[in-house]
Structures are given as structure tokens and as C-alpha cells.
UniProtKB/TrEMBL annotation:
This is UBC core domain-containing protein. GO terms for molecular function: NAD+ poly-ADP-ribosyltransferase activity; nucleotidyltransferase activity. Keywords: Glycosyltransferase, NAD, Nucleotidyltransferase, Transferase. The lineage of its organism: Eukaryota, Fungi, Dikarya, Basidiomycota, Agaricomycotina. It comes from Lentinus brumalis. SUPFAM superfamilies: ADP-ribosylation, UBC-like. PROSITE patterns: UBC_2. Residues 144-159 have a biased composition (Acidic residues).
């Protein structure tokens, strides 16, 4: 009988080992004793109990007995360590048993040696978790009279019925064990909606369901740069769809975690094993069929993928990644695929579709998320601090409490660093900051918010171990850390983008990456990246010291650098042309037949060559995409140049560049007219393999630094391509491009006075000032033999800067926006003027299309049954009297003054939405709570009269008061006897995604033209960026905005706010709206779409 709440196994284990000997036999025996004590105290994981742990008969072994929570005996296992002197780091465990083990148990015990080296405690925990999953699946199929889920059969289809737990009484159930608390789910659904996400309820039959949370993919671009999204996975923005988190394995139990994020008791009783899946769905939630198909597939997959089987035996080297499913969308996008393979496209659009980051995010959520969350709550940390704590716990095997005691400052410094980070990234609102800490955690909301955070920051973390990357370069695309284990797993588990998809969708880019790698290796480029850490086994003709295996292959990582280069080149030369691969992958196949695998194309190609190919593609953290559409291409560049869109640098690079431009514009009128310059950066072909991966412009100095330290740019492309970027001498046998020269075209902040040098080259030492836009590649393979010969061989004429270049051509397509180029620094290639399409144009077109397609979400009946479980909570209770404690000298609310101010108020807005209503309830509650908690109203600075909260949530009355008494406005208020500024706040139906409208009702301020200030418009509305469509963020709280408004009114710059002589006459709604519109127009701020409707 479980007599008390099962605690977290890890913590029980952890509390007993601070004095542990460091390693070896003593540590092994010590840990057995710890585990034994923990077992006596009662260790339970997901419905399984550890009955006992004891030293085994054989030296270096121990026995453990396991039973179910209901008392049913499972097995006694003997666990043997390979070498106790290596424990706890370089050993292996093996497992045996005297018992006749059920299949699901032996499947787990047979693979225990694959789990790597861990402590006894950790190994037991994994063992129990795996067994629990086995129990869960075996129960489904077992013939059962002793099963504890008979209710599956007896229960009616009402999931809300609590009597499903009747038979739990026999198992020692206690109050609170009810399986499904519908009102808790309703509350959580409403909170999810309030955060702007979409919850979903997916019932399966009688007694199980899955839950989902999603966000329209187009909304990702509101907080993550579209450039980054496209680089991570083009599919994210390829059609109208949702980023969806699916939570399954709940077995009808909700909520499944407590207030501290530990599992509820019901979880243990019912063998719940929650699983998170991340994918793209067409609707706001997957269909029942798609959800169950996804869960079924997952069940078949190795769940402990962080510890893979050492040899990849019969498994296909590249797992099916549904690369063919993407064809239809790609064809729509760019016409990249010619649709050779024929399958009905409708099927393709359906389903729960993984994208390039799915498997990494899933492993993070399933493997670490709950513990990170538990640490966050227990130690009051932020996400970054809790993650650091977990990595420390896992790395040192010390208890979390000890680490917090000894290294708290270090752990917390991660949270501080995170605060700084949040200035350049838009991180999602954090639901843990404003929750009721006594109630079960809204795990769906918190998990989705965490998912959004990690998606936003994905290039900063290793795709495999999830820890922050130590690299000092900021990559655009996520990759792995330099640990060999991570590199190995990345390539063997096929994390990250699918090679097959890249071959089908971007064959020209794949060919370029392989060709550049080859040139770099063949021509001995210094620090050219090599495919180390992947466990490659290769031929080597120089007979190195490293020993051969039985196939006569050598371990790649043990070769000399020169042998590595030669071996890699030889492997690349064995690869067939990329076009053949594409054809092979896209060959028509019969329905039901397995997808073609790359390796089947040519059996003579060694495994390692395919791995090198994957490495060439996956290790490129820049974004390279062939520009096929005429309108995307730079104009006046000869046809012998292939153009690629080229982005390097962190996702926030664009934002940093914009800031640099704004600063330049503040000091230079020239920059106001022409914000950026464009110039060429050339380098020999052999260097680009490294540049594309490292983006280290500074390192690229092979051709001297005659004009100072920095990145060199030429104003004429011919200079970059001829004198500086020596052509390649070598070529991959099957290269389609046969690349000879590469040159990047970059945008630079137009402030040449701050460059290191400007003549004859631009030399720029501030990397924030440079943003790469294009890569131009010349290759003999790109020349179309049928093209007119006049363009095919441009001759190089040294450019004379004293001459004016020829005037720009007039007969160009003007239907697309071009970058205005500063005529003082003409951009030319072989003396021809170059025109550059606005780089954001293509992205904006895609985003506009996605916004256009978006269909407002209609919750289906299953979800509505959750939303309607109870009548919506009443937003407020009227409070009879001011409950605020009065402190002497504190500010006092004057009811009469406010009533006068709201006399002519127009009725509240008529538009509403479920999402806004829930968000407003939450905001109102938070605001009143803060007001009640305030020790002094004077310090608070604002006041919301509770008796004036009407029936309509969309219209609030708030006062601002207690301005610094030295301010002119404070003096004016005192002179006129004005107690407070009375504000009306009107909320649109799009709240919290659309900003609320703030206006002063009374008193009237002096207009700007008459010498007034304080960011108040002539009509009494607030002239502030953060209240417009551009500046608004859904995460802003009303009280934070009130403080911002108070600051704006207190601002003396450019002029202090003053009261008008007719201060007593209230502002009207129309003048307020006009004032807002005028101010927005003056500043170029975007007016919210629904703005006009706010007055209705
Ligand atoms: Zn790693």
C-alpha cells in the first residue's frame, strides 16, 4: 500500500549521498547502501515501486526487487557492474534475473548496457521509468483479470464522471485521486487562450485523451525573425499551419502534475507516462487519427534516444524523414521540384508533420523539461538558472540542494545573463511569474511557453545535449556542441534538417556545399572544418599508426590531419552527382512501398561517404538558398554567376544591424537618406567552406591587412573576384557547379567616416555593421552553353574610381522595390551598375501570404465541452469599501472627481472575443491584487477604483497620481486642485495581441503647439510607441504600461507636461482618436487594424 505521497526518486536518492567517496569500489558499495535506504523510504516511479536494493552474491553486483504500486510483484533483477574500479563514470551495467521475466521486462533489461555509465541511483531510475512504460503498453494488450483499469470497460463515456475511481478504493486511494478534473482543465484552457495560444482536447474512445497547444506558424514571425525561421526550416512559413505541441500518454488523467510540478498520485496509480511531441498541423490541433498515428509511431521508436545502440546495424542510416511529403509545398513555393513522384497531395497536407527541430525539442521536453521545471519552482529560478542547475546535477552527480548551497551565485548569474539576452530576443511571456502557486501547474501552458523560448533561442543550444554552446560565434542555424558524443549522436540519430529533403528541395545548394568542402580540402585551406567526432571508418593508404579493423578501415579521428583531408576528399569523390540522388529519391513508387534510401542508389558508395555528405550539409550554420526567381536576383550580374541568398549570424543580427543603422542616422543626414551601403567581400574559393560555417570575417585575412584591421570590402565586384579571390584549382569529380570563384555581397551601415578605411577598400571593424545578403558563385558548370556568348566571359578591367561609372539603366523591372543605393559609393561589377532588390521583400511577400490565408480558429465540440464546463468565472466582486490601508500622508482616492471625469464617457466597445475576455480577467485580477498588496498608494502611483469596474471588461477607469512634486505637472495639479489624471482604457477584441487604447478623460493638458509636452496628444490620448501595433507586445501587463505612461508624462523632454487653462473641460473620444492617429502618422507607427472599431 502506498501510504504516503511518493516523492521524487531523484531527490530521495540525492539526499543521502553528499559524503560519497569519489569513485571506485567504495563508491559503488556506498551507492548501493544509499539506494537501499531510499528503497526503504519508499521509491515510486510512474506506478512502479522499488521494494528493495541489496548487495548481490557476486562481488560488484546488487539485487533489486520491483513491484507495482498496487503490490503486484514484477521481478527481482541482478545488476552487475563491468568494472567497479571505474564506477561511476567508465563502467557498464549488465542485468540478469532468476525469474521468468515477462517480455516487456526482458526487453528493458537486455538493453541496460546501452544506457552508458551512470550511478546506481540514476540507472535504477531509468530502469523503473522504462519498465513503467513497458507496463503501460503491455496492459493494453494483456488478458487481464488483475488489471487495475477495468473501468475502461465499465465506465460510460462521460470523462467527467468521478466514479471511475471507485475501484481505486481497494488500492488505497486517497481523496484527490480522481482521474479527471474537468474544471482544472477548463481553467488551464482559459489561461492558455489568455496567453494567445490555442488549446485542444483530443478524446480517444472511452477513457483516454491527448491534449495540444498550438500557435499559428505565421505568428512565429511576430517574435522570431523571418530570416531565421526560413533558415531553420522553410516549411515553417510554407503554408497556413500551426506549430503544435501534443501531449499524450495521459490515460485519462488530468491534472497530472502538482503545484510543484511533481507527478500527482493518480499518475502513479494509472501508469501515466506523459509524452511530448512537436510538429506542424494544418488546424489548431491534430485530428484524432493524426494524433493516434503520431503516438503509435512514437511508441515504436527508441525512447531513450540519448543513449543509442552503439552499432547502427540494420537500421537505415537516414531515418524516413518524410522528405517526399514536402514536395507539394516546395513546388508551390519555388517550383524547385518537378513533381515526378506522384502521390495525392491531400494526404501530404494532413498529419502531424515533424520539422527540422522536432526531434531535438522532443528530446528536451521528454528528457529534461519536468526536472527543469521542478528546479525552477523549488529554488525560485528562471529557466536559464534551472537549466544550469540540472546540467550541474547531471554533470557532478551531486544533489541539487548541495549545488544551490555552494554555487547559488553562479546558478543565479545564468538568470541575469538571460535578462540581458531578452533585450535582443523576444522571449515568450512566462506563465510561472503570475500563477497561483498553490494550484497544479498549468503544464500545457508552461511546456508550450518553454517550447517557444527554446525555439526562439535554438541556435544558442546544442541540438543533442541541449546545453548552451560555448562557441563565440553566433550562428543562424542550430547545430551541435563540440563534444564528440553530441556530434556522433547528431549524425547517427539524424537530428536537425533532413539531408534527403535538402537534396530534393535545394540540390544546387547541396552541390555547392560539397564542392566548396572539396576545394578547401584539396587546396589545404587553413582551419578547414573536418568531419571529426562522427565515428567515421575510412580507408587510408598511408598506413598510419592507428590500427585497422577487420574490414581494413581506420578510425577517422585517429588519423593525422593530412590523412583526414585526403580521406574526406576520397569519400567525396565517391559520391554520385547530387542530381542523380535527387532523381533517385523522387522516383515514383507504389503506395505502401518504403521510401527510397540514399544508400540504395549505389551500393559501392561506402557508408562513410554518405555521412560526409550529411556533414557537408548539416554543419553549415549559415543559410544558403539558390535564387531562382528573376525578381529576387541582383540585377546586372552576368549569367555566369549563380546567386544565393546568404545569411550568417545570430537570429537577432538583423535587429542589431537595424539599431546600428538608427544610430548612424542620428548622426548623419546621408544615412537618413541612404541607410546602407552595399559592397563585395571576396576570398579565395578554398576559404568559403570555413567562412560559411564560422562567419569569422576577421579571420579571413589571407591577403594581408594593408589598410587596417577589419573586414575588407570592394566597391566593384571585379576587384573582389579577380585580384583577391583566387580561383579554385581543383574540383569534386561529380560537382555540377565546378565552382571557381565566390564573392559575398553585404549590406554595411552608411557611416564611412567611422570605417577603418574607405579607400580603395571599405574596411569595417564592427561586425554589427555588416549583414550578409548574397553569395555570388562563378563556376564552369553554371555556364549555360546555349546562352549568348556576350555575357559568358566578362573581362576584368581595373576600375578607375576617378571616373564616374555609367549611369544606371532605365529599362529595369520597377514592380519590385529596390534598395536605394548611395550614389557617392556606386556599386558595380565590371563597371556595370548593380541594382539590389529590397532584401526583405521576398520574406514580406511570404509573410503577407500566410497572414492572408489565416482562417480564424473555430474550436470544435470537444474543446467547447471543456471551455463550457462551468459558467465563466465572474470577473470581479464589487467591494463595498476601500480596503486599502490608509497610511498618513498617503494619496487618497476622490470619488467625486472621478465621477465628474467619466460623466460623458461613451459606452464600452461592443466587440469581444473569448481570448480577450480571458486575458482581461487575468489582467484585472492581477492589477487589483497588486493594488491590494501595495503598502502605500503614493508609491504605487496609480489607482483603480473598484466600485467603477463596470459589467464590461473591455472598458476600465484608472487614475494616475502622486507625480514627483518638483515636476511642473505636479505643481499645476496642486494649484488647480486636481487629485489625479483619470484615464479610460478601451480594449480591442484582439487583445492581448492588439494594444489597448489609453486616453485621459480629465484634466485637459496644454497642447504641444502651445508649449505642452509629456507625450499627451492634443486629444488626450497617449503618444507612445508601445501602444501602437509596432511597439505593442502581448506580454505587457497593464500595471507596467501605467508606469510607462507615468514616466512619459513626467518626462521633461522635449517639453514638460502642463495643464491647460481650460483643464476642467473633459476630452472627447473623437479628438482622442484623431490625436492618436496623427501622432502615429508623424512617427511612422502602425495603427492597429481594429483601431476604428474600438469606439463602437
Ligand atoms: Zn552537446
Amino acid at each position: 500500500m502506498p501510504s504516503k505521497r511518493p516523492s521524487n526518486f531523484v531527490d530521495i536518492m540525492a539526499t543521502v549521498n553528499p559524503d560519497a567517496p569519489a569513485r571506485g569500489r567504495k563508491r559503488f558499495q556506498f551507492d548501493i547502501r544509499c539506494a537501499s535506504q531510499a528503497a526503504e523510504q519508499g521509491v515510486e516511479v510512474q506506478g512502479l515501486r522499488l521494494l528493495s536494493v541489496a548487495p548481490g552474491e557476486e562481488d560488484g553486483s546488487f539485487d533489486c526487487a520491483i513491484a507495482r504500486s498496487d503490490g503486484e510483484y514484477v521481478a527481482t533483477l541482478t545488476i552487475l557492474v563491468s568494472d567497479a574500479s571505474e564506477y561511476p563514470s567508465d563502467h557498464t551495467f549488465f542485468c540478469s534475473s532468476q525469474d521468468d521475466l515477462p517480455g516487456y521486462v526482458s526487453r528493458v533489461t537486455e538493453t541496460i548496457h546501452e544506457d552508458g555509465s551512470a550511478t546506481i541511483q540514476k540507472t535504477l531510475m531509468r530502469l523503473l521509468e522504462k519498465l513503467a512504460k513497458g507496463v503501460a503498453t503491455s496492459k493494453k494488450t494483456a488478458q487481464s483479470d488483475d488489471e487495475d483499469d477495468d473501468e475502461d470497460i465499465e465506465d460510460d463515456d462521460d470523462l467527467g464522471a468521478y466514479d471511475v475511481d471507485d475501484d481505486m478504493g481497494m488500492l488505497g486511494a486517497q481523496p484527490g485521486n480522481s482521474k479527471f478534473d474537468r474544471t482544472a482543465l477548463q481553467r488551464h484552457f482559459n489561461e492558455i487562450v489568455a496567453y494567445g495560444y490555442y488549446p485542444g482536447f483530443i478524446p480517444f474512445g472511452l477513457d483516454d485523451f491527448a491534449l495540444s497547444v498550438s500557435l499559428p506558424a505565421k505568428s512565429l514571425a511576430d517574435t522570431i525573425s523571418a530570416r531565421a525561421l526560413m533558415a531553420w526550416d522553410k516549411h515553417l512559413l510554407s503554408r497556413a499551419q500551426h506549430l503544435t505541441l501534443l501531449v499524450s500518454g495521459l490515460r485519462g488523467v488530468y491534472p497530472f502534475v502538482e503545484h510543484d510540478a511533481t507527478f500527482t498520485q493518480s499518475v502513479h496509480f494509472h501508469g501515466v507516462a506523459p509524452q511530448f511531441r512537436v510538429g506542424l498541423t494544418s488546424d489548431y490541433k491534430p485530428t484524432k487519427e493524426d494524433a493516434s498515428e503520431t503516438i503509435r509511431k512514437y511508441g515504436l521508436k527508441e525512447e531513450y534516444d540519448a543513449h543509442p545502440a552503439p552499432e547502427p546495424v540494420q537500421e537505415p542510416l537516414y531515418l524516413d524523414d518524410d522528405y517526399l511529403d514536402y514536395e507539394d509545398s516546395s513546388t508551390d513555393d519555388v517550383g524547385a521540384l518537378n513533381g515526378e513522384a506522384t502521390e495525392d497531395t491531400e494526404e501530404h497536407a494532413a498529419g502531424f508533420r515533424p520539422f527540422s527541430l522536432s526531434s531535438s525539442l522532443e528530446s528536451l521536453l521528454n528528457g529534461h523539461f519536468l526536472r527543469i521545471l521542478q528546479f525552477r519552482i523549488q529554488y525560485k529560478l528562471g529557466w536559464a538558472g534551472a537549466e544550469r542547475l540540472l546540467w550541474e546535477v547531471e554533470g557532478t552527480q551531486q544533489p541539487a540542494g548541495d549545488i544551490m548551497r555552494l554555487r547559488e551565485a553562479y546558478i543565479r548569474s545564468e538568470d541575469e545573463a538571460d535578462m540581458r539576452l531578452s533585450r535582443s530576443y523576444v522571449l515568450p511571456a512566462d506563465p510561472l511569474l503570475e500563477r497561483d502557486t498553490t494550484k497544479p501547474v498549468n503544464i500545457l501552458l508552461v511546456a508550450f511557453s518553454y517550447l517557444m523560448r527554446r525555439l526562439t533561442l535554438c541556435p544558442r543550444y546544442c541540438l543533442v545535449c541541449h546545453q548552451p554552446l560555448q562557441e563565440d560565434l553566433d550562428a543562424l542555424k542550430p547545430y551541435v556542441c563540440s563534444s564528440k558524443l553530441c556530434t556522433y549522436q547528431y549524425y547517427t540519430l539524424n537530428r536537425g534538417p533532413s539531408l534527403e529533403y535538402e537534396i530534393c528541395a535545394n540540390p544546387v545548394t547541396v552541390d555547392l556545399l560539397v564542392s566548396l568542402a572539396y576545394v578547401a580540402l584539396a587546396e589545404g585551406a587553413p582551419d578547414a572544418p573536418l568531419p571529426v567526432g562522427m565515428g567515421l571508418r575510412v580507408e587510408c593508404r598511408t598506413a598510419p599508426v592507428a590500427s585497422k579493423d577487420y574490414e581494413g578501415l581506420y578510425e577517422f579521428d585517429q588519423l593525422s590531419p593530412n590523412d583526414m583531408r585526403v580521406a574526406t576528399m576520397q569519400l567525396i569523390d565517391k559520391l554520385p552527382p547530387i542530381a542523380d540522388m535527387k532523381k533517385h529519391l523522387q522516383q515514383p513508387r507504389k503506395a505502401g512501398r518504403a521510401k527510397p534510401r540514399l544508400q540504395d542508389l549505389d551500393k559501392a558508395v561506402p557508408e562513410a561517404a554518405w555521412s560526409v555528405l550529411r556533414w557537408c550539409v548539416a554543419s553549415c550554420t549559415a543559410h544558403l538558398e539558390e535564387l531562382e526567381l528573376e525578381e529576387d536576383q541582383v540585377k546586372n550580374i552576368g549569367p555566369e554567376w549563380k546567386q544565393f541568398r546568404f545569411s550568417v549570424g545570430a537570429p537577432d543580427a538583423e535587429a542589431k544591424y537595424r539599431q546600428a543603422v538608427e544610430r548612424a542616422q542620428a548622426e548623419s543626414p546621408r544615412a537618413r537618406q541612404y541607410p546602407s551601403l552595399y559592397a563585395f567581400h571576396g576570398s579565395p574559393a578554398k576559404n568559403w567552406h570555413s567562412i560559411i560555417r564560422h562567419g569569422l570575417w576577421f579571420k579571413d585575412v589571407a591577403h594581408g591587412r594593408a589598410y587596417g584591421h577589419g573586414v575588407y570590402f570592394a566597391k566593384d565586384g571585379a576587384i573582389s573576384t579577380s585580384s583577391y579571390s583566387a580561383g579554385a584549382q581543383s574540383c569534386w569529380r561529380n560537382s555540377a557547379s565546378r565552382v571557381t570563384n565566390c564573392v559575398a555581397l553585404a549590406e554595411i551601415v552608411n557611416l564611412p567616416s567611422k570605417f577603418v578605411s574607405t579607400n580603395p577598400y571599405f574596411v569595417v571593424d564592427k561586425t554589427d555593421w555588416i549583414i550578409c545578403r548574397y553569395l555570388l558563385v562563378k563556376g564552369s558548370g553554371y555556364v549555360n552553353p546555349n546562352a549568348s556568348t556576350s555575357n559568358s566571359a566578362p573581362s576584368y578591367h581595373p576600375f578607375n574610381y576617378t571616373n564616374q561609372p555609367p549611369p544606371p539603366e532605365e529599362n529595369v523591372d520597377n514592380s519590385i522595390p529596390y534598395v536605394p543605393l548611395d550614389p557617392t559609393h556606386p556599386l558595380t561589377l565590371s563597371q556595370k551598375w548593380i541594382r539590389i532588390p529590397e532584401p526583405t521583400h521576398a520574406l514580406e511577400k511570404i509573410l503577407a501570404a500566410r497572414r492572408e490565408e489565416f482562417i480564424p480558429i473555430n474550436y470544435d465540440e470537444d474543446d467547447l465541452s471543456i471551455f463550457d464546463a462551468l459558467p465563466p468565472a465572474q470577473p470581479t466582486q464589487r467591494v463595498e469599501e476601500d480596503t486599502v490601508m490608509t497610511i498618513a500622508d498617503d494619496w487618497q482616492h476622490d470619488r467625486e472627481w472621478v465621477l465628474q471625469a467619466i460623466e460623458h464617457l461613451i459606452p464600452p466597445p461592443t466587440e469581444s472575443s473569448i481570448q480577450a475576455t480571458t486575458a482581461l480577467q487575468r489582467e484585472l485580477k492581477a492589477l487589483l491584487k497588486e493594488q491590494k498588496a501595495a503598502k502605500s498608494l503614493k508609491d504605487l502611483g496609480w489607482y483603480m477604483p473598484e466600485d467603477l469596474i463596470g459589467d464590461n471588461l473591455y472598458q476600465w477607469i484608472v487614475e494616475l497620481h502622486s507625480f514627483d512634486k518638483d515636476l511642473p505637472i505636479a505643481k499645476d495639479m496642486q494649484k488647480c486642485g486636481v487629485n489625479s489624471l483619470v484615464f479610460e482604457i478601451r480594449f480591442p477584441a484582439g487583445f492581448p495581441h492588439a494594444p489597448p487604447f489609453f486616453r485621459i478623460l480629465k484634466p485637459r493638458f496644454l497642447g504641444f503647439s502651445q508649449g505642452g509636452g509629456g507625450h499627451v496628444t492634443l486629444g488626450g490620448s497617449m503618444c507612445m510607441d508601445l501602444l501602437t501595433a509596432d511597439g505593442w507586445l502581448p506580454s505587457y501587463s497593464i500595471s507596467a504600461i501605467l508606469l510607462q505612461i507615468k514616466l512619459a508624462i513626467s518626462n521633461l523632454d522635449p517639453k514638460p507636461a502642463r495643464l491647460a487653462s481650460n483643464w476642467d473641460s473633459p476630452y472627447g473620444m473623437q479628438e482622442a482618436m484623431e490625436g492618436y492617429r496623427r501622432a502615429a502618422m508623424t512617427h511612422g507607427w502602425k495603427i492597429p487594424q481594429s483601431f476604428d472599431r474600438i469606439a463602437r
